[in-house]
Amino acid sequence: MEVTIVENQRLEVQKKIDKILCGKAEVESCCPVKDILARFGDKWSIYTILTLGKQEKLRFNELKSQISGVSQRMLTVTLRSLEEDGLVNRSVYPEIPPRVEYSLTPLGQGLLLQLLQLADWAKLNIDQILEARERYAHKS
Amino acid sequence: MEVTIVENQRLEVQKKIDKILCGKAEVESCCPVKDILARFGDKWSIYTILTLGKQEKLRFNELKSQISGVSQRMLTVTLRSLEEDGLVNRSVYPEIPPRVEYSLTPLGQGLLLQLLQLADWAKLNIDQILEARERYAHKS
DNA sequence: CCTTTGAGTTACCAAAAGTAACCTAGTTAT
DNA sequence: ATAACTAGGTTACTTTTGGTAACTCAAAGG
C-alpha cells in the first residue's frame, strides 16, 4: 500500500510539475492552471460539485440543505463562479415563487470524476492522517 | 473528448458520493473525508505539495521563492498543517543560522499523485473554461 | 560591537466568509 | 382586502482569515 516515488520516477514527475506550475515565467497570463486550481480549490466548490453529482438536477434550497453548513450567500457566490467557469448550468423558470435548477455541465462532470478519485484517496488514507494528527498533538 | 455521465453510471456515482459525504449523518465525528478535503482545499497547500514534489528536500526560503506570491506567515501556517496531517516531514538542524528541510512523506507523495491528475485535467480543459468565462462576461 | 543569516514570530490592517434581516410578486388562507 | 407564505436570492453588518512589514534569536564575520 505504501506509495513511494522512486528515483527514476522523480525526473518525470519534476518535468510534469514544472509544466503545471509554469516555473519558467511564461510570456502572457502566466500559468492558467494555477488560476484554475485556485478556483475550485475552496471547499464549497468541491462539496457543491460532489453534491450536484448525486442528481441530474437540484434546486437551490435542495442544494443548500444537502451541503451541510453552507450559508445562503456562500452558496450563491460559489454557484455563480462555477457557472462562470462553465462547470454548472443554471436554469431559471420564470414562475412565482421562482424555480431555479442547477446541474453539472459535461465539463463539470469531468471534474467530478477527478474529485471522486481524490475523495477515494482521502477515504483510503484517512486513518493514517488521523494517526498523524494524534502523534502531532501528543509530541507538542 | 466529451465526458458525460450516462444513466447507468449515475447510480454507481450516487452511491459513491453518498459514502464520501456521509449523507446519513453518522454517529460520531461525522464524515472525516469532508474534514480532510477541507484541509488541502486551500490553494497554498496544493501549491506547496506540488512544489515539494519537484525535489526530495527543500529549505524554507527555497520553498518561499518557488511558490510565487506566498507570504512567510502563510507558508509557515500551511507547512505546519501539512506536517500535522503527516503529509510533510520537517527536519530541523540545530545550527546557527538555522537550517530546516521539508520533504513529502510517503503519504504526501500519494496525495501528490492525485493532485497531478487533477492538474492534468485542468491543463486539458483550460481552453473550455476560458471560453466559458468569455461567454459569461459578454452575456451579462 | 554591529551587521548578517535563516526561519520563523508578532502586531497590525485589509479582504473574505458567516449571520441575519430584507426583497420580490403571485397564491392561498383569514 | 390584507396577511402570510413561497423560493431564491441581495444587502448591511460582524467575525474570521489572510497579507504586510517589522521584530526576534544566537552565533559568525568584519
Which key terms come to mind for this protein?
mainly alpha, Arc Repressor Mutant, subunit A, 3 strands, about 10% strand, globular, DNA-binding
Explain this structure to me?
The structure is a homodimer of 140-residue chains. Chain A contains six helices and three strands, in the order αααβααββα. The first copy, chain A, has a three-stranded antiparallel beta sheet. Chain A has one domain (9-21, 34-139): Orthogonal Bundle (Arc Repressor Mutant, subunit A). With 140 residues, chain A is mostly helical. The first copy, chain A, binds a DNA duplex (30 and 30 nucleotides) through residues 59-61, 64, 71-74, 76-77, 92, 95-100.
Q: Largest chain-chain contact? A: A-B, 64 and 64 residues
What CATH first level of chain A would be assigned? Mainly Alpha
Determine the N-to-C terminus distance of chain A.
29 Å
Morphology call of chain A: globular
- For the secondary structure, the number of strands of chain A is 3
CATH superfamily of chain A: Winged helix-like DNA-binding domain superfamily/Winged helix DNA-binding domain
CATH topology of chain A: Arc Repressor Mutant, subunit A
- Please state the structural category of chain A: mainly alpha
Report strand % of chain A: 5-15%
| Average of per-residue pLDDT values of chain A | 86
